[in-house]
Predict the 3D structure of the following.
Amino acid sequence: MRLMDNIDHFNLRSFDLNLMIAFDAMMQELSVTKSAEKLRIGQSAMSHNLSTLRMLLQDDLFVRVGQKMQPTAKARALAGPVRTALSQAQSALQSSDSFDPAKADRVFRIGVTGEMEMVLLPALVNRLQAVAPGIKLLSRAITYDTVDHMMDSGEIDLAVGCRAEIPSRHRGEVLFESEVACCFNARLCGLGDTLSRAEFLAARHAVLSQTENVAGCVGAAMQGMGIALNVVLAAPDFMPLLAAARTAPIIANVPRRIAVQYAPLFGLTTATMPVDLAFPATTMNWAVWTDRDVAMVWLREQIRSVTGDVAALGATIAAE
């Protein structure tokens, strides 16, 4: 895929790559002195770069407000595309035909949802420590609303989590299907080891929600079936749901793999959800410009390998 079909090479000759680097550093630091230190150049050289940028772009870009420099509207609009371009250039320059994981010293930035943060990362770190001890992982939380921007801007190298749609500028593959389980304090709820549809619909519920909708993804899916779930707690993470179910007569609806690993820590009973709901599959996504980066190809293979163990967690409840 070509990100840009028509490049005006003649006009771009006057726009030195160093100017883009200087702009990005200034956006990050909002200080001429700190930006110069970051780039290991003199403060006068940094000031000259900013003057050149202002002339070429016909905008102040950064203005002093009190004791701090603040970006203008045009600078804010340019920040994302410039960051993306530099990230792509860095990936292209770092790419090579060889990669030795046993000797590599590199940081991989992985965007994960709450579920993957708790079940994938521990397994992945365990594997990497055995085969690539110099590799470091930087985990970043992602949501439906933030993942595309974070990948485009180079904040993350790849993302793992539930995705309904994948833009054409990204690659993606399904790792496993997503399922939800019910966790509850059987004594407080007056329930047994199994959960009937009637008991489920009559109960009060705790659900995951990363938006202002208290119904969360589970409640919204129920609404699509014409069912109004009685949601009394919505939280952006799974641990508060399980902690609440430990002390209150409510059902925490969490991913099956979370339930298998963490519900026992709270003394909760886990049961299969008695309502058939379809959720987006858990996928691994990456930017198209990292498709052939041998280090990224290797990392994706490690994630696929440990995903087999992670996916097996989902079969535990069904087998019981």
Remarks:
- The longest helix spans residues 73-94.
- The longest strand covers residues 170-176.
- The chain has 14 helices and twelve strands.
- Residues 103 and 134 are 7 Å apart (CA to CA).
